[in-house]
């Protein structure tokens, strides 16, 4: 068995419409042992899922927890809990294996999307991603010890992540039921609303293979050592002048913020953001549904890696030569055209291109039917049934189309199979040749669901579930022009050109009429290239207009790379907002200004 990509712990946001509970007292006060397995009317304070200052050392634990599918309570009640016959109120029936490493509780499947293996009459909507937690003892628990871990609910039809917590008691050969609560989330979509869930899940304990334990622990230590240095936000505030970082995280309103962090001089400084039940105790373990941030990861990293291995000509290959059954125009659409969302395909909306509206017709053409289509063949059928060629040539006009990135991923995967054999897989290539060298040991992502229940192609339009550490390492790889520890992983020249927005497409323009370079653009003009949005900003030190490479995903997720070497990460859940709510204030680019004050550029 392999260990996963495990990170450390700390805090996230406030779920609307619920009172904020502070962190108070030891876990046994919040969730006494005698009532831990009892039905509860609501979630408890998150303090129940982490050791307090007076916690005592706990004995080792190893074992497999076989969790029974269980109906949880939700608040508010879900209006459409069943999607495609799967119920979002059900905790899935799964088996999770754990071992201890000092005071850490480590899941063997940490960082993996675990599918339901013991469903009831109705399947659960969720898979789970277990992450690292803690073990400890409390005097009032007698001979029992406590274990808790971070737990993500994720889905294989969308990029929805619910960040939760789980805890149980253990002693020799025995465990209690598992108390769970899902207290935070990113990117709600099909379920249509923000919600919390909680309940008690029956558990059966079975023995794990003790022979594997030394290797698992050694791998765990190595993975934990490969994390970026991480410090709480308060450490950074103490190190800089007062008000320097005022507004960091804005203009997004704080109530929609799940997490915010700044990568500075190789250290990840993360904020403590509140949930409705107090600070989330393991913030660096959280995995997020970052939606279109995936567009800045899957396609560009695979193209830049393959350009390093085979040559830059990779970008000029045609989508239609590698994906069967498409409109003939795809025979003229290059990999780079799809990566720039300038395919000239997806003919919905208007034909007006000057000025151009990049989102014109984006969700038209029965978008949801395409998005929820399970298999690759079904997705291609939806594209053929609902989208048409535009009259303009590829490479000239940007129209935001998820289908471009999905097909780009499918084409790159087919190219890889053509040169490495049918067993090749582009996402596995990225994990082995890009992620592993920079210290990302697992990369859970959504794939197509093929006949027979098999996982198919990784979506390249969305679907990635990274941690803050993962996003920081990917951003650093770009900042270092594709090099890491003396190894050139990505093609250096193409990476430099990407960060400089060279040959980027003007979002509101028509490249067939006039091709404007960023240096020639006005102060409000945005550009796009290979999954990156280039945001205009005049630096306070240079007084020059600069275009900041930004990864952006629905719900106001943003990762921004700065010329001063810093990286800001904002994770949010500002999607499916209640009527009348706004995600942002009118204060302008507050996060960018804060980074500029910290290290003027």
What is the fold named in CATH at topology level of the largest domain? Beta-lactamase
Under the CATH scheme, the architecture of the largest domain is 3-Layer(aba) Sandwich
Cα-atom Rg, whole angstroms?
24 Å
Q: Please state the structural category.
A: alpha+beta
The CATH class of the largest domain is Alpha Beta
Task: Indicate the mean pLDDT.
Answer: 93
Summarize the structure.
The chain has twelve helices and 31 strands. The protein is α+β, with helices and mostly antiparallel strands and 601 residues long.
Written overview of the protein:
- Helix content is 19%, strand content 24%.
- The protein is an alpha+beta fold.
- Strands 1, 3, 7, 8, 10, 11, 12, 13, 14, 15 and 16 form an 11-stranded antiparallel sheet that branches.
- Helix 4 (298-310) packs parallel to helix 8 (402-420) and helix 4 (298-310) crosses helix 9.
Per-chain topology:
Layout: H1 27-30, E1 62-67, E2 70-71, E3 73-75, E4 82-83, E5 86-87, E6 90-91, E7 94-101, E8 104-107, E9 123-124, E10 127-136, E11 145-154, E12 161-171, E13 174-175, E14 178-186, E15 196-201, E16 203-206, H2 213-225, E17 230-232, H3 233-239, E18 257-264, E19 267-270, E20 274-275, E21 278-279, H4 298-310, H5 335-339, H6 367-372, H7 376-386, H8 402-420, H9 426-435, E22 447-450, E23 454-458, H10 468-479, E24 483-484, E25 487-488, H11 492-499, E26 505-506, E27 527-529, E28 532-538, E29 545-553, E30 557-561, E31 567-572, H12 590-598
Parallel strand pairs: 5-9, 17-19
Antiparallel strand pairs: 1-7, 1-16, 2-6, 3-15, 4-5, 7-8, 8-10, 10-11, 11-12, 12-13, 12-14, 14-15, 18-19, 18-31, 20-21, 22-23, 24-25, 26-27, 27-28, 28-29, 29-30, 30-31
Helix pairs in contact: 4-8, 4-9
């Amino acid at each position: 068995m392999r260990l996963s990509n495990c990170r450390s712990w700390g805090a996230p946001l406030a779920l609307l419409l619920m009172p904020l509970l502070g962190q108070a007292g030891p876990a046994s006060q919040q969730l006494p042992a005698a009532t831990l397995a009892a039905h509860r009317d609501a979630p408890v304070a998150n303090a129940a899922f982490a050791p307090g200052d007076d916690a005592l050392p706990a004995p080792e634990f190893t074992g497999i927890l076989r969790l029974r599918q269980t109906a949880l309570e939700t608040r508010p009640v879900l209006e459409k809990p069943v999607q495609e016959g799967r119920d979002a109120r059900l905790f899935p029936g799964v088996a999770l294996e754990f071992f201890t490493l000092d005071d850490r509780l480590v899941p063997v499947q940490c960082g993996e999307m675990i599918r339901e293996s013991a469903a009831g009459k109705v399947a659960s909507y969720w898979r789970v991603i277990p992450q690292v937690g803690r073990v400890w003892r409390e005097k009032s628990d007698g001979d029992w010890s406590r274990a808790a871990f971070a737990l993500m609910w994720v889905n294989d039809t969308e990029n929805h992540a619910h960040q939760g917590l789980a805890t149980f008691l253990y002693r020799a050969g025995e465990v209690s039921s598992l108390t769970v609560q899902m207290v935070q989330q990113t990117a709600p979509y099909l379920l249509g609303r923000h919600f919390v869930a909680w309940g008690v899940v029956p558990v059966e304990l079975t023995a794990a293979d003790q022979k594997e334990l030394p290797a698992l622990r050694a791998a765990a230590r190595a993975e934990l050592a490969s994390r970026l240095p991480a410090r709480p936000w308060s450490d950074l505030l103490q190190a800089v002048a007062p008000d320097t970082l005022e507004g960091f995280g804005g203009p997004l309103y704080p109530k929609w913020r799940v997490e915010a962090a700044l990568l500075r001089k190789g250290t990840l400084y993360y904020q403590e953001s509140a949930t409705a039940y107090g600070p989330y105790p393991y913030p660096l373990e959280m995995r997020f549904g970052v939606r279109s941030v995936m567009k800045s990861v899957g396609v560009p990293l695979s193209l830049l890696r393959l350009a390093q291995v085979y040559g830059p000509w990779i970008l000029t290959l045609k989508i239609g030569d590698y994906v069967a059954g498409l409109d003939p125009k795809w025979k003229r659409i290059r990999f780079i055209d799809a990566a720039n969302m300038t395919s000239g395909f997806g003919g919905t909306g208007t034909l007006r291109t000057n000025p151009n509206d990049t989102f014109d017709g984006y969700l038209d053409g029965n978008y949801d039917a395409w998005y929820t289509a399970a298999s690759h063949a079904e997705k291609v059928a939806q594209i053929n049934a609902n989208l048409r060629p535009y009259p303009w040539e590829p490479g000239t006009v940007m129209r935001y189309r998820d289908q471009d990135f999905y097909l780009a991923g499918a084409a790159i995967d087919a190219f890889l199979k053509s040169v490495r054999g049918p067993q090749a897989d582009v996402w596995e290539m990225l994990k082995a040749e890009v992620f592993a060298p920079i210290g990302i040991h697992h990369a859970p992502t959504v794939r197509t669901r093929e006949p027979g229940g098999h996982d198919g192609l990784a979506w390249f339009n969305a679907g990635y579930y990274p941690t803050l550490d993962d996003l920081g390492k990917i951003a650093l790889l770009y900042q270092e022009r594709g090099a890491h520890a003396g190894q050139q992983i990505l093609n250096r020249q193409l990476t430099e050109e990407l960060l400089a927005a060279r040959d980027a497409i003007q979002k509101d323009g028509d490249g067939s009429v006039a091709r404007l370079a960023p240096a020639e653009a006005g102060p409000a003009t945005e550009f796009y290239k290979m999954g990156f949005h280039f945001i205009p900003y005049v630096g306070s030190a240079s007084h020059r207009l600069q275009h900041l490479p930004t990864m952006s995903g629905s719900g106001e997720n943003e990762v921004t790379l700065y010329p001063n070497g810093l990286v800001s990460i904002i994770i949010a859940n500002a999607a499916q907002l209640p009527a009348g709510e706004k995600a942002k204030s009118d204060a302008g680019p507050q996060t960018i200004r804060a980074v500029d004050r910290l290290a003027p550029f």
